[in-house]
Design a protein that fits this description.
- The protein is of the alpha/beta class.
- Helices cover 58% and strands 7% of the residues.
- The chain folds into 2 domains: 7-272, no CATH class; 295-463, TPP-binding domain (Rossmann fold).
- It has helices at 7-31, 38-56, 65-85, 91-116, 122-150, 162-181, 188-206, 214-236, 239-262, 267-272, 295-303, 314-319, 322-334, 353-361, 371-374, 396-399, 450-463; strands at residues 307-312, 338-343, 368-370, 383-387, 418-423, 443-447.
- Strands 3-2-1-4-5-6 form a 6-stranded parallel sheet.
C-alpha cells in the first residue's frame, strides 16, 4: 500500500476507514436496541469489524501476517462451529466465555507491551496497566460465570473476611501497577505479580456471587472487557480498538445499570451481598397450599378466555419449549384470544435471553412486551401462563420487607384472574426463595416438563 501512496496519504486513508468503522459500530449498536432491527444491527457492526480487521493489515509497522491469518482462521473456525452447535439454552454460557476471551486478549496485549517495553511514558504505562488489570479480572471472572451457568460450579464459595481478602488483593495489584507506572520497578517479576493478582481478583470477586445474579455479572464483565480493549487501543495508537472498546464499555455499563435497576439492587449489593445462590438463601415462609390442575382444564380456560399473557422464564429455555409455546399461541389467536408475552429484564440467564428464544421460534415482536408496557394489562387478563419463571413474578417483592428481593420490580402475574404455572417440581427458584405466587387462591400448578406440558395444552385447546 505504501508503494502506491505516500505514508501520510496511507495514514489518512486508514483514519478515514476507522471513521467509517465508528459509524458502523454506533449505528449497529443503536439498531440492536430493538428486536425488529437487531439482526440488521449485528450485520452492520460485523461489517465494521471486518473493515477494521482488513485495514489493520495496512497499518504501518505491521508484520507476522502468516501468524495473524492463522490465528484468525483458527478462531473463525472455532467460533463458526461452536456458534452452530451451541443450543439456545447454552447461549449465556457461550457469551460469558467469549466475553472472557475478549478480556483475556486485552490483557495479553497489555502483557506484550509491558514485558517488551513497548509502552513508553507514564501515560502509556498507566493505560497499559489499567487495561491489563481489568482485562485479567474480566477474563477469570467471566470463566467463573461460565462455570456457574454451565453447572460446573454448583456452590458459591463464601467465608468470613472474604471481602477484606478481596480488598487486600486489589490493593496489592494496585501497588504492583504503581511500581510499574512510576517506573520504580518494572521488572518481569513485578509485571508477573500484577497479572497473577488481577487474575486472582477476578476469581475471588466472582466465586461468592450466586447464579441468579449472573445477568448483572455478565453485563459488568462485558463493560470491563470493552474498557480494557479501549485502554490498550490507546497504548497501541489503534483507533479501531479505541472505538470498539469505548462503544462496548459504554453499552455494557448502561446495561449493567439497567439490570441492577430491574432487580432493585445496587451494583455493590450484587457483587458483595452474596445473594442469588440457591444453595445459601433461606426460602421465605408462605401460607396456603399448592393446587395442581390438569392440562385439559387449562386448555378450556384459555380457549374461552379473551386475553392470555404468557410469562416465559429459564424453565422454558431448558425445556426448549419456545416453538410449542408459539404453536399454542397461534391456536389461541385463531379462536380470537388476544395473546401477549411479558418479558422481565432479568428473565433467563442473560440480558435479552427470552427475547432471543421467542424470536428463534418466530414469535412476532409486536406481541412481546417488557415489564413497563405489560404490567397494567394483567388485571384484565383471563389467564397468566407462567412457564419456568420464578423470582420475576414473586409477589413478596412488593409486600415482604424481609425478603431479599423486596422492592424488585416484578411482573404482576398474580393480578390476573387465573394464574397457571408450568413447573417441573415443587422446589424454589434459582435464588432459593419460595414463590408466594404459587400459593395464591387464583393460582394452579401444571406439573411437568415445559415442552410436554405445553404439548398437552395444545391438544386440550384443539379438543375444545
Amino acid at each position: 500500500m505504501n508503494g502506491a501512496f505516500s505514508p501520510n496519504t496511507a495514514r489518512l486513508l486508514i483514519d478515514a476507514s476507522y471513521l467509517l468503522v465508528a459509524f458502523l459500530f454506533i449505528t449497529g449498536l443503536k439498531q440492536m436496541s430493538s428486536p425488529v432491527t437487531a439482526r440488521r444491527g449485528i450485520l452492520w457492526a460485523g461489517t465494521g469489524m471486518l473493515i477494521a480487521t482488513l485495514v489493520s493489515f495496512a497499518y504501518p509497522g505491521m508484520s507476522h501476517y502468516v501468524l495473524i491469518l492463522a490465528a484468525i482462521g483458527v478462531g473463525g473456525v472455532v467460533a463458526w462451529v461452536s456458534g452452530k452447535r451451541v443450543a439456545m439454552t447454552d447461549m449465556p454460557q457461550m457469551i460469558a466465555l467469549y466475553n472472557g476471551m475478549g478480556g483475556g486478549a486485552a490483557a495479553a496485549i497489555g502483557a506484550v507491551e509491558l514485558f517488551s517495553g513497548g509502552a513508553q511514558g507514564s501515560a502509556a504505562l498507566t493505560l497499559a496497566v489499567i487495561g491489563s488489570l481489568i482485562g485479567s479480572v474480566s477474563f477469570t471472572g467471566s470463566l467463573i460465570a461460565f462455570g456457574k451457568l454451565q453447572g460446573l460450579i454448583k456452590k458459591s464459595l463464601r467465608f468470613g473476611g472474604q471481602q477484606f481478602l478481596n480488598v487486600i488483593i486489589l490493593l496489592a495489584a494496585l501497588a504492583a501497577g504503581a511500581l510499574i507506572v512510576l517506573q520504580i520497578n518494572g521488572s518481569a517479576n513485578v509485571i508477573t505479580a500484577l497479572f497473577l493478582l488481577a487474575l486472582l481478583l477476578g476469581l475471588a470477586m466472582t466465586l461468592p456471587i450466586g447464579g441468579a445474579d449472573m445477568p448483572v455479572v455478565i453485563s459488568l464483565y462485558n463493560a470491563l472487557t470493552g474498557l480494557a480493549v479501549g485502554f490498550e487501543g490507546f497504548v497501541l495508537g489503534n483507533a479501531a480498538m479505541i472505538i470498539a472498546g469505548t462503544v462496548v464499555g459504554a453499552a455494557g455499563t448502561l446495561l449493567t445499570q439497567l439490570m441492577a435497576k430491574a432487580m432493585n439492587r445496587s451494583l455493590g449489593n450484587v457483587l458483595f451481598s452474596g445473594f442469588g445462590d440457591s444453595g445459601g438463601t433461606q426460602s421465605s415462609e408462605v401460607n396456603g397450599s399448592l393446587k395442581p390442575i390438569e392440562a385439559t382444564d387449562v386448555g378450556v380456560m384459555m380457549a374461552f378466555g379473551q386475553k392470555v399473557i404468557i410469562v416465559p422464564g429459564y424453565g422454558m429455555a431448558v425445556a426448549q419449549a419456545q416453538h410449542k409455546v408459539w404453536e399454542l399461541t397461534q391456536l389461541l389467536q385463531e379462536r380470537g384470544v388476544t395473546v401477549k408475552f411479558a418479558i422481565h429484564p432479568v428473565a433467563g440467564r442473560m440480558p435479552g435471553h427470552m427475547n432471543v428464544l421467542l424470536a428463534e421460534a418466530g414469535v412476532p415482536y409486536d406481541i412481546i412486551a417488557d415489564l413497563d408496557e405489560i404490567n397494567a394489562e394483567f388485571e384484565t387478563a383471563d389467564v397468566a401462563l407462567v412457564i419456568g419463571a420464578n423470582d420475576v413474578v414473586n409477589p413478596v417483592a412488593r409486600n415482604d420487607k424481609s425478603s431479599p428481593i423486596y422492592g424488585m420490580p416484578i411482573l404482576n402475574a398474580d393480578k390476573a384472574k387465573n394464574v397457571i404455572v408450568i413447573k417441573r417440581g415443587q422446589g424454589a427458584g434459582f435464588s432459593g426463595i419460595e414463590n408466594a405466587l404459587f400459593y395464591l387462591d387464583n393460582t394452579r400448578m401444571l406439573y411437568g416438563d415445559g415442552q410436554a406440558a405445553v404439548s398437552q395444552l395444545i391438544q386440550a385447546v384443539k379438543a375444545v
